[in-house]
Amino acid sequence: MIERYSLPKMSGIWQDENKFRIMLEIELFVCEAQGLQNLIPKSAAKRIKSKARFNLARIKEIEQKTQHDIVAFLTNVAQYIGSDAKYLHMGLTSSDLLDTTLGVQLKQASDILIEDLETLIKLLAAKAKKYKDTVCIGRTHGVHAEPITFGLKLALWYDETKRNLERLKQAKEAVALGKISGAVGTYSNIDPRVEAYVCRKMGLNPAAISTQVIQRDVYAQYLSTLALIGSSLEKFATEIRHLQRTEVLEAEEPFGRGQKGSSAMPHKRNPVICERICGLARLLRGNAFAGMENIPLWHERDISHSSAERVILPDSSIALDYMLNKFIEVIAGLVVYPQNMLVNLIKTKGLIFSQRVLLALMNKGLSRPKAYDLVQRCAMKTWRENTDFKGNLLNDKEASKYLSQKELDEIFNLDYYLRNINNIFKRLSL
């Protein structure tokens, strides 16, 4: 009897030991189902179950001759079973075993990635609430726009990560498929009830229809979902990379005791983890493209997908697991500099209040074009001369006719910009 085993970590899922354990379990359930339906002797099914084993080294040795991994696996298992091995793999084709095994592996991988995302979501929620009222400048095109809070930035990541979690759950459901339908999917040599039995035992859904293989669009969906999640992580990491720039320094990834930033420059503290995440996101997108290329196969199947899948499915799963865990590390140890945020906030000498000045002038009866030109004139003076925007407005003959010192003081009030932060957080259930 094959021993049950604990769920392996991500890299272990893709090791041959796990793959062949799953395959053996599938074969045993096929025999069990066939025995229950009197398609093979029940006594033979019991003996097979008690004797079945495999040896990785021996499988590799046999494969050197057969040049076929499934034949090598079955040959090795048959050596343990003896004469009853004639009932093993009866009515099956290799892809019945391969694709059903892949369904289990992808389900295992999805569970780990789901756990990673849930951890990240909880961490982002905690950090968003911590920095909910920490004021910083919002940027568009990389240029100072209007005030926001750092917590709002993190709340945005929290919400996006929640969407990614739902996408991954859908992808998991899509790939958690099995098929035991024979050479071209017609069940010509296997009873459909066997497939139903095996899939139920393996925690999979039977493919509603298949050829010799499960159709590859479901794996493309999985890979595309991983690429989407990776792209979100790249987006978050890119933001931290900018915030860690010397000229900005509003936040930075953790820098450990004894860590070195450069072989040449001892002062360096580089956002290496975030840069690594950005690089790996490109790999995920490339693998997703390869997954889409695997969808069009010749007729009922060819094996042009197989070689690529043996790389892209494990690599994308392992890479995203790594990326998520590294980003969790970054968020958990994120260093935030609220004082630098305030310094940056006033760097443009009040220009960030320009829209509110525009609206105030329109409320005084000015047309939008006239008000815009007036505000822009004073703003450009601030850009050119590095002078105070509010002072330029007060010293402008036309602007000062409409807005007093008191009115401008009220306009240049940060609280106005942040008055809806609590409502946004409530909408996110934070």
Topology of this structure?
Blueprint (H helix, E strand, L loop, with lengths): L9 H4 L2 H21 L5 H10 L4 H11 L2 H13 L12 H37 L4 E6 L2 E7 H26 L1 E2 L13 H11 L2 E2 L10 H27 L7 E2 L19 H22 L10 H29 L2 E2 L1 H8 L8 H10 L4 H18 L3 H7 L1 H6 L2 H7 L3 H4 L2 H7 L3
Parallel strand pairs: 3-4
Antiparallel strand pairs: 1-2, 5-6
Helix pairs in contact: 2-3, 2-6, 2-8, 4-5, 6-7, 6-11, 7-9, 9-10, 9-11, 10-11, 13-14
Please describe what this structure looks like.
This protein has 430 residues and is mainly alpha-helical. The protein folds into three domains: 10-90, Fumarase C, Chain B, domain 1, CATH 1.10.275.10; 123-178 and 213-344, Fumarase C, Chain A, domain 2 (Up-down Bundle), CATH 1.20.200.10; 351-411, Fumarase/aspartase (C-terminal domain) (Ribonucleotide Reductase Protein R1, domain 1), CATH 1.10.40. The protein is 65% helix and 5% strand. The chain has helices at residues 10-13, 16-36, 42-51, 56-66, 69-81, 94-130, 150-175, 192-202, 217-243, 272-293, 304-332, 338-345, 354-363, 368-385, 389-395, 397-402, 405-411, 415-418, 421-427; strands at 135-140, 143-149, 177-178, 205-206, 251-252, 335-336. The longest helix has 37 residues, at 94-130. The protein is elongated and about 100 Å long.
